[in-house]
Amino acid sequence: MAEIVVTGGNALAGNVSVLGAKNAVLKQQVAALLAPGKHMLENVPHIADVELMSEVLSFVGATCELEDHTLVIDVPDDITPEAPLDLVRQMRASILVLGPLLARCGQVRVALPGGDDLGARPIDMHIEGLRQLGVDFELRHGVLEGHVADGLVGAEVHLDFPSVGATENILLAAVLARGETVIENAAREPELEDLAVFLNAMGANISGAGTSTIRVLGVPTLNAATHRVVPDRIEAGTYAVAAAITAGEVVVSGCVPDHLRMELRKLQDAGCRVEAGEDWVRVLGPKRPNAVNFATLPFPGFATDLHPQVVALLAVADGTSVITENVYEARFKYIGELARLGADISTDWQHAVIRGVPFLSGCPVMAPDIRAGAALILAALRAEGYSTISAAEHVDRGYEGFVDKLAALGADIEYHA
Ligand code: EPU
User: Fold this and answer.
1) Rounded Cα gap, residues 334 and 83, in angstroms
2) What top-level class would CATH report for the domain 22-228?
3) Using one digit for the tens of pLDDT, what is the confidence trace for 101-147?
4) Ligand 1: which residues within 6 Å by Cβ?
5) Which spans in 68-155 are helix H?
6) So where are the chain's domains?
7) pTM
8) pLDDT for 321
């Protein structure tokens, strides 16, 4: 297990830049499967999840090469419509091959992912949406088998909840379906909008991405394309919180502050000074944050993927904060680790009550997932003395050079592989 060692107390200062969004790249990797040829994605981070998705594509028959943040994806004419359990278990986003493989091959075999550290995470809305486009599904021995008898046909799909993955899987199939597909109550996340930009560059006809109603006019074929991936708002937000929690002053560049409107407002409420330009944001942290309440919601609500980091900040607030997690049923698993550092937090179902304490004190903790891992590192930056964060490989899944970037801002932090 990789370990990160932090000695807290340094106020971070300087400039840090962010790369393309993990949750955009992964979907664009699978989208490339829709058209044979050489695709090029720019601004791609070197992170473990991009490598894992490259393995999924390699299983399908495509190759991915990442050099200098440019990912070249070479998709052959013939591909294998399958994703095995060991890859799906390592990364749930693998199930996004369903849409493209059904569209390209008319059939698919993908291992059904189980639950993970964030909860049961079913994929019923993915399956139901694809069914409406003409797919027959059967679950056999833990493998989801899909067949399309007579080509995908556009349909009107109403989602119960604006699921990011379900919207994407349906979109990825609809681009090659006959006729028009309308997705109502679609997810509006910037990464989804960016997927539509890439698909349109491939020749798709999608309008309304970024709103609750997406319209897709199916086209017979798509072509390979080049695209620059949208900046990672969660990476940017994590560095903004790093500035806030250490009472530092950090400029985060290469980001889109407009994608973090809600979260930056909450940082201001917590006492941060926030200035933003078109592609940068400067955050000046207060000596001690104010208590702030927030509730996670699909975009443009407060991002669930920044919830643990902001809870780490509120752990040292002057006052009591109440937060509500509306996206995941089990996102609070990291609270126990934060308590080891001295945080005073109680949870009840979807709610957490955070009674701010003046000091945290360093100790060994374990990262349960990507974002909670980042949050524990941020808490350790504020804590007195020395902390070790084990299972640090979780953080490598989503952040390129997290430790190096924090060290360049003045953190006392080391990575032990
Ligand atoms: N859900 C269902 N049924 C479905 C689909 C989703 O019940 O068919 C539920 C999920 O169980 C969850 C909620 O709906 O409770 C939201 O799930 P959603 O489908 O919106 O999320 P996702 O596509 O599985 C992506 C990101 C997550 C991010 C969420 C929400 C990727 C690869 N993952 O997941 O990112 O938290 O959207 O914004 O894009 C991360 O980066 O650390 C991460 C977990």
Assistant:
1) 30
2) alpha beta
3) 999 999 999 999 877 788 888 999 999 999 999 999 999 999 999 99
4) 22-23, 26, 93, 119, 121-126, 161, 163-166, 187, 304-305, 327-328, 370-371, 398
5) 85-90, 98-105, 124-132
6) 3-18+231-416, 22-228
7) 0.98
8) 98
